[in-house]
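Duplicate of #3305? Posting structure anyway:
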C-alpha cells in the first residue's frame, strides 16, 4: 500500500491512523555547506566534515555531511510530516541506523517511511507501538541512510 500522505492531519493523528504496510514519502530538505561545517565543528570535527580543502584528499574526495547531521535532517522531516503532534509519546529507541552513501552539500533529502508493525499495548491500553523503517533518499533517489525505530502513540479515546 503506497500513500503520498496521511488522510488525517498531524494534529488529529492517533495510533489507529498508522496502518501496517503503508508507505509515505516526504521531503525535501536541503543540505548546505555552512550547515555541514557548523554542525561538524560542534559535534563531529573530522576534516572531511569541516574543511573543504582537506576533504579533497580523503577517500570521499570532498566535503560530506556528518551522519549525525543526516540523522537530524531526517528527524526534522519525520517530525514535520509523519509524527503526530497530539499523540506522540516519543520512542524507546532506534533498532538500527545505517549510513550507506555520503551526503554532500547541495544534496536534497527526502524520506520514505514504511509502517512495519502496529500493536496496542497490553499493559497500557491507551497507547500503541508503531514500528517503522525509514529510508533517507537524495535527489537521485539513492538511499543514503536507513533507520528502524519504534514510536509510542496514544490511541483515540472512545466513549
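Output from current build:
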Amino acid at each position: 500500500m503506497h500513500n503520498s500522505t496521511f488522510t488525517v492531519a498531524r494534529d488529529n493523528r492517533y495510533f489507529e491512523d498508522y496502518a501496517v504496510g503503508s508507505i509515505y514519502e516526504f521531503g525535501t530538505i536541503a543540505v548546505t555547506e555552512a550547515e555541514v561545517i557548523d554542525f561538524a565543528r560542534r559535534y563531529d570535527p573530522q576534516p572531511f566534515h569541516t574543511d573543504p580543502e582537506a576533504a579533497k584528499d580523503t577517500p570521499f574526495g570532498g566535503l560530506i555531511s556528518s551522519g549525525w547531521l543526516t540523522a537530524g535532517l531526517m528527524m526534522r522531516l519525520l517530525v514535520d510530516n509523519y509524527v503526530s503532534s497530539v499523540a506522540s509519546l516519543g520512542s524507546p529507541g532506534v533498532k538500527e541506523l545505517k549510513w550507506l552513501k555520503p551526503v554532500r552539500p547541495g544534496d536534497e533529502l527526502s524520506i520514505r517511511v514504511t509502517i512495519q508493525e502496529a500493536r496496542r499495548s497490553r499493559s497500557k491500553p491507551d497507547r500503541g507501538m508503531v514500528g517503522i523503517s525509514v529510508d533517507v533518499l537524495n535527489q537521485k533517489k539513492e538511499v543514503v541512510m536507513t533507520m528502524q525505530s519504534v514510536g509510542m502513540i496514544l490511541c483515540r479515546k472512545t466513549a
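Confirmed duplicate; merging threads. The domain at 15-154 is CATH 3.10.129.10 (Thiol Ester Dehydrase; Chain A). The CA atoms of residues 52 and 63 lie 5 Å apart.
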